[in-house]
Amino acid sequence: MVNISSEAKVGLFVLVGLIILGYMSFRVGQQGFGLKNGYTVRAVFPSVAGLDRDASVQIAGVEIGRVEEIQLQDGQALVTLRIRPNVKLGNDAAATIKTHGVLGDKYIELAPGTNTQAFLKEGDQIQQVESQADIDRLLHQIALIADDIRGVTSSLNKAMGGERGEASLEEIVENARLLTKNLNALVVNNEEALRFTLDNARQLTDNLNRVVVTNDAKITDVMDNLKDASKQMEQTFAQLNEITGSINRGEGSLGHLVKNQETAQKLSQTMTSLQEVSDKINQGKGTIGKLINDEQTARNLDETIKGINRYVSKSEQFRTYLNYRGEYLFDKSDGKSYVDIRIQPKEDRYYLVGVVADPRGRRTVKERITNGVMTRTEEWEKDGLLFNAQVAKRFRNIVLRGGVLESTGGVGLDYLMLNDRLKLSFEAFDFNSDDDDRAHLKAGMEFQVFKHIYLTAGWDDFISKRSNSSPFAGFAIRFEDDDLKYLLSSVPIPK
Known about the structure:
By secondary structure, the protein is α+β, with helices and mostly antiparallel strands. It has 10 helices and 20 strands. The chain has helices spanning 6-31, 135-160, 162-189, 191-214, 216-248, 252-259, 261-282, 286-293, 295-317, 481-490; strands at 39-45, 56-59, 62-73, 76-83, 94-99, 106-111, 125-126, 128-131, 319-329, 334-346, 349-357, 362-370, 373-381, 386-395, 398-405, 408-417, 422-429, 440-448, 453-460, 470-480. The chain is elongated, with a radius of gyration of 49 Å.
């Protein structure tokens, strides 16, 4: 067995340690602290003074890579960064050169970006870069600031120095004291008014907050509409630009008119002819000239036009409506139908005629005297139609009606709401002096759901003693004369 001295053992141990240390240094230098399998990205800086190769790359103070290489490219510094494979950088990532402390080593701080849909890949370049100001530039800026402070101090010394400056300073202090005193007095004397003003401001703020919260959806809709309008305006301007370009190129009728000299000459001749005609008219020549220059002719023409306008205005106000209304009587399990024609010569007046089909029919009471004894009989007409003929007058939101309602005398009252889309109605008719009978009372409502479609509901003959009372629900269809013209014109005519 070979005996090894203690010195040899120590030397061998040191040699092995040096070999291991060298190998680890080589591996660390080659792998970059486990970054051999990472990916590289690039960044171009105007200057990287003080930044060394193998410098740290960090996000939020955590190291995620190293500087692999620094090269010169077109007068700027091209820095290659090796990033750990588990770190993803968005294509809007940013790189900044920073320093540890005031005199520490420089490193690169990365902002990973907000785009989580597109990430940087191997060899991609970071577009957003920022170089931190170096110490020399900071010191130069500090020197300039010091010079400015020195200038301001010198000016203050000149302004405030001496007896005049002291007097001015005392005057300023005295004015400030008086101003403070006056402000205190103003606040004390107007404390109630100030408190009232502050309360109003607080209430106004609360009201505005409630309005904004309550109408948040409406405000959002308004903003969306404004955005849509803006887009439409952009499209309109683009189309105008296209039209202007076509005109400048001489395309189309207008472009041909602007660019073609022959056309422009013909237009000039036409304008000359029109000027000659205008001169003749001004001189009272011809029929048009006499019409314009003769006062009596002009007055007659004016009266004629006024008469035509009055006729047209009345015809425009005159409206005709065709209405169908169907009601289902729940207690009778049957339907009641109305067909009406409403003639409206004015906005606040109309006439209504129509027929009614009531499954309950109409009762007729006949009295006969036989041998001095009076007998009464009731006859029911279930197959016959009932008639409506009414005159209506509107007062603001209230409409009063009167005339014949379902073949008897009666009155009606309508209350209109929601821009006439909702109507509450009450009718009273078929008045009878018989103690065993009561008037026919009807109450209901009508709501417009579409342009020509209405929903109805209510209670018909709700105080009847003859078991005719019944709730109802139904619908109505209403057409104006213009709608009827359109419908009739759309119907095919058989050949």
